[in-house]
Write a structure and sequence with these properties.
Elements: H1 6-20, H2 37-42, E1 49-62, E2 65-72, E3 75-82, H3 93-104, E4 110-119, E5 125-136, E6 145-148, E7 151-155, H4 160-165, H5 167-173, H6 175-197, E8 201-202, E9 208-209, E10 221-224, E11 229-233, H7 238-246, E12 251-259, E13 271-280, H8 284-302, E14 312-315, H9 316-324, H10 333-342, H11 353-364, E15 373-376, E16 398-403, E17 406-413, H12 418-435, H13 445-453, E18 458-464, H14 465-472
Parallel strand pairs: 3-5, 8-12, 14-15
Antiparallel strand pairs: 1-2, 1-4, 2-3, 4-5, 6-7, 9-11, 10-11, 12-13, 13-18, 15-16, 16-17, 17-18
Helix pairs in contact: 5-6, 7-13, 9-11, 10-11, 12-13
């Protein structure tokens, strides 16, 4: 059942009164803005005439005068209404203050104002409003801040579920939230500029794919009516970018939206952003050096941290030995299961050997790496798209970058042997059948065909942009750096 609060009913009545006065509370005509709040504050000149627009955030009526605050996309400034010097088109001048300001205006309304700049006795920069235009009447009240003896002690819109579900309100009332997303945009722009200067080309690859490839994950499935075929939201764009390397591109990258039909927590969202970069005639050693340059560049700009290169490099098995005391080299699955039991790590016969090794590292090792660290040389079975290590056929030329206990990047010397790749895909299918009972992985035969034409030696990397932004904005939850994180549908929507 639809629910309308008492305050909404009052505001709707005000809306109707405005219309009876001949005021359209949602006008179509462009509103002329001559400046912004930030520009006013930075270049304040008393008696300057200005026109700005924004949301009314405070209103304090004092008889014949009223003070308030208006907030635009750059900041908030105090405004002042006086009974004797206020105008609204189509309204008797005497009624503008007594009716519009005192009775029909609400916090949350979006208004346009024309006025003169001045400073109060308390030296606060203020706009003396001469004309007010209502641009959008708000019929829902904004969350208000609780106070104790004029001191703010608690914002009632701090519940994370409410904040993530109604991000539009979060952005209005919590000023610091918008800064996170401004910074996110700047981070992406800086990385793009870094890659562009190197001569690498930004490209787009399909989001709807015939075969979900490039990673091990459960996909989202949809159906194309015209073609009458299933399609999958991409879990990775890796195989398409490699096709471009086959086609003759030297270096390509994409900021890719990927989708995985899996669990959600503080580090995972079903929809996430990854930077994928592939460069021909390079290997994972080169990519480690290149990654150091990107990380040093970004952290210097946004955190003023000067990381020293080279970053620490340690194999995954050496890391496990260091933090658990167990050497897993050449150890079979049954013995690894016994070790998992000793370490109180989830295990069973349906979990393959690779996943067991990964679980041990995730739970016992990863958290110990605060400074940037490359975890290198994974067992070959854990990396089906990676070349065998040049010095040890049981290992792969792969690394993950860990910072502050979080995986930030995953990179390979890319496998370009089509016969080996096809054999690895077949083995991967057998493993997937054990893990995903209701999903059978498909081999991307076109990708194998592309490799058969010849792909040069290539280094590739995927960098988790959401997690990188978490680090650079001091946030511990991925939901804080996504404008619209995935949420359960509300059981009862109060409209």
């Amino acid at each position: 059942m639809s629910y309308i609060s008492e305050q909404q009913i009052i505001r709707i009545k005000k809306l109707e009164k405005l219309r009876k006065l001949g005021i359209n509370p949602y006008p179509s005509k462009e509103y002329n803005i001559t400046t912004t709040v930030q520009k006013i504050k930075n270049n304040f000149l008393e008696n300057d005439k200005i026109s700005i627009a924004g949301r009314l955030m405070r209103l304090r009526i004092l008889g014949k005068a009223t003070f308030g605050n208006i907030k635009d996309h750059t900041g908030c400034i105090q405004i002042y209404f006086n009974k004797y010097n206020l105008y609204t088109k189509g309204i008797n001048k005497k009624d503008v203050y007594n009716i519009i300001i005192k009775k029909l205006l609400d916090i949350g309304d979006i208004i346009g104002i024309i006025g003169i700049l001045f400073k109060t006795k308390q030296n606060e920069k203020t706009v003396y409003v001469h004309k007010i235009t209502i641009l959008s009447k708000s019929i829902r009240p904004l969350p208000q801040v609780k106070k104790d003896k004029n001191k703010i002690i608690h914002d009632i819109f701090s519940n994370v579920e409410h904040r993530y579900r109604m991000r539009y309100v979060d952005l209005i009332v919590n000023d610091n939230i918008k800064d996170i997303f401004f910074k996110r945009t700047k981070i992406i722009k800086k990385i793009k500029n870094f890659l562009d200067v190197k001569g690498y080309i930004e490209v787009d690859t399909p989001i709807l794919q015939l075969i979900p490839g490039g990673a091990i994950a459960r996909p989202f499935v949809t159906h194309h009516n015209s073609l009458n075929i299933p399609l999958y939201l991409r879990i990775a764009n890796e195989l398409y970018l490699k096709r471009l390397i086959v086609g003759g591109f030297h270096g390509v990258y994409e900021f890719s939206k990927n989708f995985r039909n899996e669990g959600m927590d503080r580090n995972h969202n079903p929809e996430f952003t990854v930077l994928e970069l592939y460069v021909a005639y390079k290997d994972y050693y080169w990519m480690m050096n290149f990654t150091e340059k990107i990380i040093k560049y970004i952290f210097k700009i946004f955190k003023n941290i000067c990381y020293k290169a080279p970053f620490k490099r340690i194999t995954i098995l050496e890391s496990i030995k260091e933090y658990t005391g167990f050497d897993l080299n050449n150890m079979d699955k049954n013995n690894i299961i016994k070790i998992c039991r000793k370490l109180n790590i989830k295990e069973n016969n349906n979990i393959d050997k690779n996943k067991l090794i990964e679980n041990i590292f995730e739970e016992k090792c990863k958290k110990n790496y605060t400074d940037p660290t490359f975890i290198i040389d994974y067992p070959i079975e854990m990396s089906p798209l990676t070349k065998k290590h040049r010095d040890n056929k049981n290992l792969s030329e792969r690394f993950e970058l860990i910072i502050n206990g979080q995986e930030i990047a995953n990179a390979y010397s890319e496998l370009n042997d089509p016969i080996d790749q096809l054999d690895r895909f077949k083995k991967q299918i057998n493993n997937e059948k054990k893990i995903f009972k209701n999903y059978s992985m498909l081999i991307d035969k076109d990708f194998i065909r592309a490799l058969e034409y010849g792909m040069p030696p290539t280094a590739g990397i995927g960098i988790g942009i959401d997690r990188l932004v978490m680090l650079l904005t001091n946030n511990k939850s991925i939901q804080e750096v996504l404008l619209f994180p995935q949420m359960k549908q509300e059981q009862e929507y109060k409209f």
